[in-house]
Amino acid sequence: MPPVERIRVPGGARLDGEVRVTGAKNSVLKLMAAALLAEGTTVLDEVPDILDVRYMADLLDHLGCKTERMPGSVRVTVPAVPGNEAEYELVRRLRASICVLGPLLTRTGEARVALPGGDAIGSRGLDLHIAGLERMGATIESEHGFLIARARGGLTGATVVLDFPSVGATETVLMASVLAEGRTVIDNAAREPEIVDIADMLQQMGAKIGGAGTSTIEVEGVSALAPTRHATVPDRIVASTFAFGAAITRGDVHIRGARAEHMDLPLEKLTAAGADVTVEDDGVRVRMDGRPHAVDVVTLPYPGFATDLQPLVIALNAVGEGSAMITENVFEARFMFVNEMIRLGADIHIDGHHAAVRGRERLSGAPVQATDIRAGAGLVFAGLVADGETTVGGAHHIDRGYPAFVEQLRGLGADVGREPDPYAYPS
Ligand code: UD1
């Protein structure tokens, strides 16, 4: 396990300069799982150096693969028959481990995946994954903390209508369907750019997929796939995080590698807050001169405003001019970190899935605790615009999703640092 550290954040910083964004966490973990669908060596490029990639590599190694990590890339060599049991000790660190369920089931006819852990941001059920696989002929049981999925005679194509456009359930059914017998239709599918990225890679491997990026994905099953080489789509959440960081700190940040077409709503909200947003050939530049205006936000599945950015927009509003209402529609417990923002002097009232934020000119530095990846980033930015010093405990949460976060902030002129957390208790 990584050492327990906290991030020391001196207040009064202004972010100024350039950062470069690499591949998306929420794509690369699934691309690594998708490699399981073909025997041989698949190479992924633009791989971010984050803890979750290490955790996924450990899980694949445990399943009999050989993963090699090089700077910016991962090679995954998959045996003819991968193992089929993902045990709790590996899965609990990473909820995204559930994405091995579809590939293992379709490759081996049986998958045993421990029920996952991951961020403490809500109940995060698996009912839609299960219902989708059952529609395709799998039988699924839950025993001793494991989900056990069986499809001895193989999976059969089916029409799967998702109750909610769940990212994970769309990916599970998509990855299970590419080697199934016949045609699968996923209706009310998630439309995130990361789904399109996985579909692109699967197509390079020989899968027949239409409609990725729309609400209806159609898949014609094939008998085998071949390994491939694929570059991960840029991380729109990391890119938007720095865009918000520029606005919160009244700075000027050029985010190289950002794909503006995946950031429509975040960039629109930043413009409404008064930021000057310019789309450039190789990324996006965000500059904020005065105090931001408070902006209302409602989180929704893509192309709606991403729930992952909700802590960032709360941090922006906490120092904004005026009041705003934030409505969280995706993860019910994602407001958990708000108590930590209040410790920094933010004026926030929660009522169910709404948060009313009244902006303050300055926040007030204090020790706080990151509860998940994005909350951690939001707290660091809030600390940058607080009087005095803030320490953000649970730095490992941030490491799960942001490569070299502290180094990147230092490159933008913030004098942040890492140090052992003397008050940490093992989690
Ligand atoms: C993924 C992202 C996460 C992002 C989220 C929404 C990864 C590793 N994580 O999570 O960063 O915030 O998409 O954009 O890619 N649900 C059910 N039953 C299910 C599946 C989901 O009730 O079977 C619920 C969840 O509890 C949640 C909502 O649906 O309330 C959205 O979940 P989903 O879209 O599946 O998110 P994840 O894939 O877990």
What is the name of the CATH architecture of the largest domain?
A: Alpha-beta prism
Task: Please state the structural category.
Answer: alpha/beta
- Strands in their spatial order, largest beta sheet: 23-25-1-26
CATH topological fold name of the largest domain: UDP-n-acetylglucosamine1-carboxyvinyl-transferase, Chain
Helix content: 25-40%
The CATH class of the largest domain turns out to be Alpha Beta
* Ligand inventory: uridine-diphosphate-N-acetylglucosamine
CATH superfamily of the largest domain: Enolpyruvate transferase domain
Please state the average pLDDT score. Answer: 95
Q: How far apart, in Å, are the first and last alpha carbons?
A: 10 Å
**Global shape:** globular
The stretches of 5 or more residues where confidence is low (pLDDT under 50) are 118-123
Tally of contiguous helical segments: 14
- How many discrete structural domains? 2
Outline the biggest β-sheet: 4 strands, mixed
Q: Approximately how much beta-strand content do the residues carry?
A: 25-35%
**Secondary structure tally: strands:** 26
Computed CA radius of gyration, to the nearest angstrom: 21 Å
Describe it for me?
- The protein has 427 residues and is of the alpha/beta class.
- It folds into 2 domains: 5-21 and 234-420, UDP-n-acetylglucosamine1-carboxyvinyl-transferase, Chain, CATH 3.65.10.10; 25-222, Alpha-beta prism (UDP-n-acetylglucosamine1-carboxyvinyl-transferase, Chain).
- It is 30% helix and 26% strand.
- The chain has 14 helices and 26 strands.
- It has helices spanning 25-34, 51-62, 88-91, 101-108, 127-135, 167-177, 193-204, 236-248, 264-272, 310-318, 338-343, 373-384, 395-399, 405-411, and strands spanning 5-10, 16-20, 40-45, 66-70, 73-78, 85-86, 110-114, 139-143, 146-150, 159-161, 183-187, 208-210, 216-220, 229-231, 252-256, 276-280, 283-287, 297-298, 323-327, 347-351, 354-358, 363-364, 367-369, 386-387, 389-393, 417-420.
- The strands form 7 sheets. A 4-stranded mixed β-sheet has the order 23-25-1-26. A 4-stranded mixed β-sheet has the order 2-15-17-16, with helices on one face. Strands 4-5-3-14 form a 4-stranded mixed β-sheet, with helices on one face.
- A hairpin with a 2-residue loop joins strand 8 and strand 9.
- Helix 4 (101-108) runs parallel beside helix 6, helix 5 runs parallel beside helix 6 (167-177) and helix 10 (310-318) packs parallel to helix 12 (373-384).
- The radius of gyration is 21 Å and the shape is globular.
- Residues 118-123 have low confidence and may be disordered.
- It binds uridine-diphosphate-N-acetylglucosamine.
